[in-house]
Every structure is written in C-alpha cells, then in structure tokens.
Amino acid sequence: MKQAMGRMAHIFATTGVVVVGNAYDYFSRTRPRTVRRRAGSRPAQQARDRAEQELRGIARAYDACPSLTLRLLTLEDVCTGGGGWTFTSDNDYKVSCTLYFTAYYSTQSEVGDALQEILTAGARPGSPIPFSPAITSLHGARETGQLLAAGQTLSWETSRHAVEEPRPCMRQQSDPPVYRCLHEPEDLTVAAIREAYGTVLQLNLNPVGYFRIGKHGKKFRNR
Predict the structure, then answer these.
(1) How many domains does the chain have?
(2) pTM to 2 decimal places
(3) Who has the most CB within 10 Å: 14, 81, 93, 103?
C-alpha cells in the first residue's frame, strides 16, 4: 500500500511539474504580434541597417582583391520571440534578431595567388579581413581548403571539397521584419559561377545578433 501511494505521489509530482512548466511557457513566451512590433521598431531597423552594412563592407573588402570577384551574396534576417521555458533552459529575452551572411567569389587565378592577395589586404591598417602574413599560415590551409579567424571562415574548392549551393530562399516564408531572405543576384547558383568563372571561394561570417530586448525591456546588441 505504501509503495502504491509512493508511486502515485511521484506521478502527481512529475505531472504537476510538467503542467506548471507548460503553463509558464505559454504565458511567458513573447507573442508573435509583439515580436513583429518590436522587430519593426525604429531602433531595430537602425541596428539592422548598421549590421547589414558592416557585413556587406567585409564582403566588399575581399572583392577589392584583384583576383577575386564577388558573385553572390546570401542573407537571412530572423527575429524570434523568447521567454519560453524548458527543463534545461530559460530564455532570458523577449525579442532577438540575428543576421546570417555568406558571400561567394570566383577566381580564374591560382587559389594560392588569390590567398596571397587576401593576406596582403588583411595586413593593411583598418582592414576587416582577419588574415595576414604575420598571423596566417597557408601551409595546412592549402590541404584543408579553409581559413578561420575572428568569426570569418574562408573556404575554397579543392580536389576533395566543392563549395555547396546556398540554402534557397522560400518566397512564401518571406515576412519582414520577422523573417527576410535575400540572394543577390536572385537566381544565380554556385554551379553557374563555377562553370562561367572558375574556382569558387565561400566566405561565411558568424551570425550577428544585432537587436535584443531582455525580459525587463533592456535593449542591447549581441555582438
């Protein structure tokens, strides 16, 4: 009898925690209309514009290298609501907005020559390129086909690695300011760049959290 009572108490306690947790999650999660209103606010738009221009500036810095030509940009802009609760996490924000950015280049030169130009550009004062002759070794990178530094990943095609196509934009999912997806130019593919212009290089930039409102209304940039 005592064992049965103990099992019932355990079941009740566990169920109670789940019910309370689900109720908390429902009432604390940011409502979609609030996410939309905050994401479309003037402070969010200003932060969005600054972050996007900064990322585009990095892409242009690589494009300035003589052997590289910027062919394709992809951008995803996502704003989400927080506040939900799980057994393992408790989101401490009401609204969070993040930019995801990738640039694709072509080169008809030897990749090694293009990389040397990138290192030279990175050594210039104020350059947003984090690779330079003083801190970057190309010895191992030539085999891996990749350089990583300061939130930037530059990769290129080798005999064992091909640059993949970007994830397509779903027009039906486009819903600014909550979700925005751009490919510039819209219909260009990595395969088409490779066929027309030669070797493809891909620059991935770390996601930039450009706007965030905490549970108590505090606004800040994640970066």
Answers:
(1) 2
(2) 0.81
(3) 103
